Amino acid sequence: MKNNIRFDLSDYLIHFFRDVNLETGSHIYLPEHCGFNNQHHACFIDAKYLLRLSLRSHKIFSSWSYRNGQRTVYGDSPVVCFTDMPIAAYLETGVRRLERNEKIGLYAIVLPKEQMFNYGARPVIYGLDQHNNA
């Protein structure tokens, strides 16, 4: 699935991990039990911990994300989010967003888009409405 037309897309999907503060209104909900030796006992969860959790358990946990107390995922099921922007562009954008204290992380898992499509990953359309616009 080579992309020879658009330079803003890549042949890879990026799932990033960010620091999570469970005491804010813009956090994720993690599974109550994340596996042996993976319990978190603090309100602040480091992005490196979340990356390690995924690598140890061989899966990326789906979750709900909240902004201003409202879910940012529509529907009845939590999801795993990816971006297909080029890796260099993601890193550049990530550094700029971190400088503005936005919720993003530079720790990530990068997977081949074609293989993920074969596993069932699909593009989605998302957007904010007046209730959760940051």
From TrEMBL:
Source taxon at top rank: Bacteria
Name the UniProt record assigns to this protein: Cytoplasmic protein
